[in-house]
Design goal:
about 400 residues; F-box domain-containing protein; F-box_dom
């Protein structure tokens, strides 16, 4: 073959390849257009192809902690109700999954307390959680509808595992046979009798934040975790109850002026309070007595008090039957940081660290000191503590890095 013939053959082959490439590109574009048209017609994956467990898990994340009885209507239970109304398949799935209905925040106010619709929704909601255990948060802001609310709850109390009651209670709650976690807050029963009757022997986790601590009658002897929002008045009353709390291993305190008095009582000769205490968590947020921690030059009375308590509970010669304190976590909350303070929390922290570093050096104690700064004091919006989480005061401790003991 001559050179000219060779060149002609090569050009012919390249032209053929180019035509093939063009044809393939046109075919590829046609396929892309067809694919886009098909995709635009609707989803190609049916809910039925996704495992039910995954779908329910997604629904649970979307639902969160439903609420019923808000001032703005009843749409806070909407995530569940809307999903149940999408189609028959979703309705069957949602209504047949008791785990999706096992949590509810009930808000009883003047509007909901007089609403037939409110109680009808509550009667329809709670049975769908059976046979699962219930986690209820009840905010009772008024006496309106109190007897009706107690009546509706009565049949479901034997399934309540976690209960947070915020406010006053009209009447008594019987049959809490599986209750494990109880939080009471923002209530003052005064001369009323203790409203929780027949409390479960399983109750081990309790949080108390009330103005009349003398009416609190929990089974102290079976508690293992206790969270207290403690004032000076509470500190004078608690020594009459705490001698029975012989099983408490974890104590979380939100100090409102009473922690020092409680610790002084614990150190008193002949007193043996909380003998099994192993973990102590304290949150201090008081500004006016910061000097009691000490200064850069010398520790103050409060730091020395904690030092004595730690020494008593970590010493090899501690009283017989007293467990060794293993962990101390102290959180200093600093509010209004834009305003000058006579003594910042940094000084308090250093004063406490100075008197406790000997215990950590000998590996007798796990010590964690922390400062949490907020631009303003804890805000209560619509009657709720926005920093506390679903289980209230221990949320402060949880923010400090401690995993909530309400599990």
């Amino acid at each position: 073959m001559t050179e000219d013939e060779e060149l002609t053959s090569r050009r012919s082959r390249l032209a053929h390849i180019d035509r093939q490439i063009l044809a393939l590109e046109q075919q590829l574009q046609a396929l892309r257009d067809e694919r886009a048209d098909v995709a635009a017609q609707g989803p190609t994956t049916s809910l039925s192809t996704i495992p039910t467990e995954i779908v329910l898990h997604i629904f649970a994340l979307a639902v969160g902690f439903p609420q019923l009885g808000r001032r703005r209507g009843y749409l806070h239970t909407g995530p569940l109700l809307l999903k149940a109304a999408v189609c028959r398949e979703w309705h069957t799935l949602v209504c047949g999954a008791p785990e999706l209905w096992s949590k509810l925040h009930i808000v009883q106010n003047r509007m909901s307390g007089k609403s037939i619709k409110f109680f009808n929704r509550l009667r329809a909601y709670l049975p769908r959680s059976a046979p699962r255990y219930l986690e209820l948060r009840i905010t009772a802001r008024t006496s309106w509808g109190g007897p009706e609310l107690t009546e509706v709850l009565h049949a479901h109390l034997p399934r309540v595992e976690k209960l947070h009651w915020e406010g006053n209670i009209n009447g008594h709650l019987h049959g809490l046979s599986v209750l494990r976690c109880l939080r009471i807050s923002s209530g003052s029963w005064g001369s009323q009798t203790w409203p929780f009757r027949d409390v479960s022997h399983l109750l081990t986790h309790v949080e108390i934040h009330v103005r009349s601590a003398d009416v609190v009658h929990v089974p102290w002897g079976q508690l293992t975790c206790l969270c207290l929002n403690i004032s000076s008045a509470d500190a004078r009353l608690l020594p009459t109850a705490l001698p029975e709390a012989v099983s408490v291993e974890t104590l979380a305190l939100i100090d409102e002026g009473g922690a020092d008095e409680l610790f002084t009582t614990m150190l008193a000769p002949g007193r043996l309070l909380l003998p099994r205490l192993r973990k102590l968590f304290i949150r201090y947020a008081r500004r006016h007595d910061a000097h009691r921690w000490g200064s850069d030059s010398a520790p103050g009375s409060r730091a020395l008090l904690l030092q004595r308590l730690v020494q008593q509970r970590t010493h090899d010669n501690r009283p017989e039957g007293v467990a060794r304190l293993e962990a101390l976590h102290v959180v200093f909350f600093s509010f209004d940081i834009a305003r000058p303070q006579t003594q910042g929390p940094e000084v308090s922290l250093q004063a406490l660290r100075a008197v406790l570093e000997g215990f950590t050096a000998k590996k007798l104690l796990t010590l964690q000191l922390q400062i949490k700064e907020f631009p303003a004091p804890v805000q209560y919006i619509n009657g709720e503590d926005q920093l506390s989480g679903e289980w209230g005061a221990e949320g402060y401790i949880e923010q400090a890095g401690y995993v909530s003991f309400v599990t």
